Amino acid sequence: MKTNKIHTLFIVVIILSTLFSCNKSSDSEIPGEDEIGIKVGQTAPGFTLSDKNGIEINLNDFKGKMVLVDFWASWCSYCRAENPELVSLYSEYKDKGFEIIGISIDTDRNDWLKAIDDDGIEYIQVIDQNGFESPIVDQYGVSSIPSMFLLDQDGVIIRVSAQASVISTVVRNNLK
Question: How far apart are CA 105 and CA 101, in angstroms?
Answer without folding.
Answer: 13
